[in-house]
Amino acid sequence: MSSISVSTTVNGDPVDFVCTPDESLLDALRNRMGLTGAKEGCGTGDCGACSVTLNGRLVCSCLVLAAEAEGAEIATVEGMAGPEGLHPLQRAFIDHAALQCGVCTPGILVAAKALLERNPDPSDEEVRYWLAGNLCRCTGYDKIVRAVQAAAAEMRSA
Amino acid sequence: MRYEKPQTVADAARLLTAEKGITRVLGGGTDVLVQLKAGMVEPDLIVDIKALPGIRAIVAEAGGFRIGAAVSNAQLGEDAAVRAMWPGVVEAAGLIGSTQVQGRATMAGNLCNASPAGDAVPALVAAGAVARVAGPGAARDVPVEAIPAGPGKTTLKRGEFITSILLPARPAKSGDAYLRFIPRTEMDIAVASAAVSLTLNDHGVITAARVALGAVAPTVRLVDDAAAAIIGTKLHDDALAALAAACSAACAPIDDKRGTIEFRTEVAGVLAKRAARIAYTRAGGQA
Fold this sequence. Notes:
The complex is a heterodimer. Chain A is α+β, with helices and mostly antiparallel strands. Chain A folds into 2 domains: 4-79, Beta-grasp domain (Ubiquitin-like (UB roll), Roll); 88-157, DNA polymerase, domain 1, CATH 1.10.150.120.
């Protein structure tokens, strides 16, 4: 299988990599760029553990070919914390114990960030529907919703 | 496997036609990549259509809207003008999968995946939508109901692919709606579904209607008898009963883990009644 050269932008930094035609963006992020925040849960778009944004759109990186990243802007959980520290969502997840094993957490953080960028003041129901594609088998979701709401409140007052 | 991202429709058609092996067209990839991962298909060539001109655009045309084949359902849902004219279609497309899937999935892909349970398809059929098909010959326009041939099969010929779907203009006092039954609140596959599009006159009498059913036959089904049952009526109870009966009569479903033949046949009629009421109210009728 021939190799494809891809030039893309990940978390604001230009990145060049080589991939196979059938390689997923998730595999390229993890195995070629060393960005292991996005996880493979199901590999079929059901669990959301591999969530990233592609040109501002929340997607499952397991359902994107790495070759499709050519010229695109990708954002992963690794880009969430700034020089001054963790993103408010990351802090809220710690403060509210909104994770246990943590496998789903990077995907949920990326998804929640995408939600709050569109809707800074969501209802609990809107949070639950938005995050319906992010499965968590530990928390029962309640603490996740509370953490997202706490971060949303902090971001609104900032 | 090769990956190609052609810049013109002609190049895409050439690539798809020239390949002797298995080809797949890549739009949002939410079906194609799942099939790849599951080993259901091992394509020799993937043609990514997202660089084709206009393929990601929603354009007003002839009083309706032309939806590019790579327009994601999320992008569609954000378009207030399309939502205002065809709320049933936009809602149906918006039911498919999670937020993440919405960011990639397309109506054209839903149509070409040819699942009888595809949520966007009954709403498109009820809307009288028309797919523009490109290929080795001249582009042709095909009513969406003529695209699916059976589960996972379409009537598209070798080298052909859909470049856009036209949602037609509609008269004043028109409305549409789509409803599905699933055993949970989101992220599931329809057990049965129904879409209704209708137009009223100034007295609230239905003058035109189209009714389509999903997940109750090998393909999404346009049910002329069901439309005939409500045309000329104000959607009173006897008309609704005739609508439901016509829908149930048109069902030829399978028994599987998600629903029995009896359940699907009954529920298709119930959903059609409820969708008709919503469409009627949206058209400005007093139900």
